[in-house]
Amino acid sequence: MIKRIIDSSELSKFKNAVERVSRIVITCHKKADGDAIGSSLALCLILRKLSKNAIVIIPDQLADSLTFVTKGIDYVTFSRNEVMAGNIIRNTQLIMSLDYNCFDRVDRMKSCIEQSRVPKVLIDHHLNPDNVFDVTISHPEISSTSELVYRLATEAGWLNCIDKQVASCIFVGIMTDTGNLAFSSSYPEVYHVMSKLMEYGIDKPYLYKMAMDTVPLNSLLLQSYALLNKMKIVDDKYALITLDKSDLEKYDYKTGDTERLVNKPLSVKNVFWSTFMREDPNCIKVSMRSEGTLAVDKLCARYFNGGGHKHAAAGEFYGTMQEAVDLYYKIVEQVNNEEHNKNEN
Q: What average pLDDT values come out for the chain (345 residues) when binned by 10 residues?
């Protein structure tokens, strides 16, 4: 038996919100990862089985490596269909926000959502959600938003709406957000959830291969180049990878091509903090991963206008790559001083 965790009043408000409407828009954050798209599509399919006119609208183009998840499921990309997507949002009766905790995460969709007067529901596992939602289902202790969608369906009495396709979407979301269950989670019940999903006859080897072990050739070449030529190991325990515009152009960079690159330096003995900086058109994208006690969500929040989880976080730097790197080394000095003070005490 999987423990019930969702607050009963929020669950009741959520069910009432769904029951009162027929048209529902489900949104996720920009640069959608496996958890964002997996949880959104899964909930959309569940709602359709409840006879709701539900549609997923994502802020920007989905990475090619994740399109396998969407097979047979229609969705709308806001950046490619702004007029149509805007009309859908303006005419919906309920907006659901999955896998993000503030509207800044949805890029140009932000104004459409904020201007809508319909009820808004948050379903998310990131810390410190904004207080702008009519219903807030927020559980940072849970491995992924996809796991939260499964728990929500269970506690709402909608298990009969889960089939192989829904289970596959949820499985991909959990798998990608936990590194195939390699990352820490305070809720061991995630293993029970995964075993329940297996009972729907999902093709686990295929889903793993597509989600975790398949990349375009250019992505493989770009990441190999980054590790060989652009990675620096600092003080034998910190790793920094930088890719500027010329590097990306050389390998015909597309959205998703650097996915999981930031994780790879952690396989080096003694390295427990990895940082990846990529030059995007309007900013330097910063991703961090860590092990042990170092909380990279705090670093990203303090220095890079971002946040996330203790061991996996991201942010943005508005300046040049060199300025971002200079700031990084100042942070390294601070982390070293804190480590030194800890050891002395």
A: 92 98 97 97 98 98 94 97 97 98 94 97 95 96 96 97 98 94 76 96 97 93 98 96 97 93 96 97 96 94 92 95 98 87 68
Residue 183, pLDDT score: 76
CB 40 within 8 A of CB 56: yes
pLDDT of 24: 98
Strand (E) or helix (H) holding 212: helix 204-212
Residue for token digits 């390295």? 271
Q: Which domains does the chain have, with CATH numbers?
A: 8-212 (3.90.1640.10), 217-344 (3.10.310.30)
The pLDDT value recorded for residue 245 is 97
DSSP-derived letter for residue 65 is: G
Torsions phi, psi for 259 (to 5 deg): -55, 130
Q: Are 303 and 220 in contact (CB under 8 A)?
A: no
- For 16, the token pair is 């009432």
- Those residues whose C-beta lies under 8 Å from the C-beta of residue 304, and which sit 6 or more positions away, are 286, 314, 315, 316, 317
pLDDT at 131: 95
Adjacency order of strands within the sheet including 94-98: 76-77, 53-58, 23-28, 94-98, 120-124, 135-138
Q: Is the dihedral of CA 209, 210, 212, 215 positive or negative?
A: positive
Whether the CB-CB separation of 99 and 39 falls below 8 Å is answered with yes
b (16+ CB within 10 A) / e for 310-334: ebbbbbebeeebeebbebbeebbee
DSSP 59: S
pLDDT at 2: 87
In the DSSP assignment, the letter for residue 64 is G
Please, what is the angle between helix 204-212 and helix 164-177, to 10°?
A: 40
